[in-house]
Write a structure and sequence with these properties.
- The chain is about 60% helix and about 5% strand.
- The protein has 12 helices and 2 strands.
- It has helices at about 1-15, 20-50, 50-55, 60-70, 75-90, 90-95, 105-115, 120-130, 135-150, 160-165, 185-190, 195-200; strands at about 170, 175-180.
- It has a two-stranded antiparallel sheet.
- It is flat and about 55 Å long.
């Protein structure tokens, strides 16, 4: 731990870094902060499994963290849930440990695993593949869509359901991404029952006299462009 403190002291002492160095520091510190979250959750879980909080006079790991670190009870519970996620959500937990998912992204999947233990394991690996390239906001939307598809909309209002469209992305060749439009069950029913769908969409109008064109062989130059 002394090496960590020394490295932090060195970074605090540098105030005249240029913009590129500052940007690199911010990115590196964000990565380090996530590593610290991983390590803290592991050690907190180990302390809990060995009954350390009881031996130290605390009723729970949450009480220990609140008293020893000054953090809020809500944050302490999140740290404890990170440690428990290794068994309940092994795929996103491993992706979080490896840095492929941010802490904020992983939280969405950890909550889903906690709330839907019967159906979550079958979808876990696929969910990680879907959200790995997304940011935290779109990860929440994608997980929310899946949640509704297996558990219904619950208390989610219509505005939130409509705002959660178009967040599914999958990787393809050449660095491109495929986007899918996601619609939950209530919205899908409303689309199916819409008057426009019932009477059929208006067909595209075709030109009554399409202009005559001359077929052109592959590789033949197009005349008139260079003059």
């Amino acid at each position: 731990m002394s090496a960590i403190h020394s490295a932090l002291d060195e970074m605090f002492a540098v105030d005249d870094s240029d913009l590129s160095e500052l940007a690199a520091d911010v990115a590196e510190l964000s990565h380090v902060a996530q590593m610290v979250d991983v390590l803290r959750s592991r050690k907190t879980r180990s302390l809990s499994d060995r009954g350390g909080h009881h031996q130290l006079g605390y009723s729970s790991p949450t009480a220990f963290l609140v008293d020893q670190t000054g953090m809020s009870p809500g944050r302490a519970k999140r740290i404890i849930s990170y440690g428990n996620a290794k068994e309940k959500a092994p795929y996103p937990h491993q992706a979080w440990v490896e840095g492929r998912l941010s802490t904020d992204q992983a939280q969405h999947l950890f909550r889903a695993a906690e709330a839907l233990p019967d159906v979550y394991p079958d979808a876990e690996q696929r969910l990680v593949d879907i959200v790995e390239g997304l940011d935290s906001v779109d990860t929440g939307k994608a997980v929310g869509y899946w949640w509704q598809s297996v558990d219904g909309p619950g208390d989610v209002d219509a505005e939130t359901r409509w705002a959660r469209r178009g967040v599914s992305l999958s990787r393809s060749m050449g660095g491109m991404r495929e986007s899918r439009r996601l619609v939950d069950r209530p919205s899908r029913r409303s689309l199916r029952s819409s008057p426009r769908r019932q009477r059929g969409a208006t067909p595209l109008r075709r030109h009554p006299h399409p202009p005559a064109t001359t077929p052109r062989r592959l590789g033949e130059p197009v005349s008139g462009l260079a003059g």
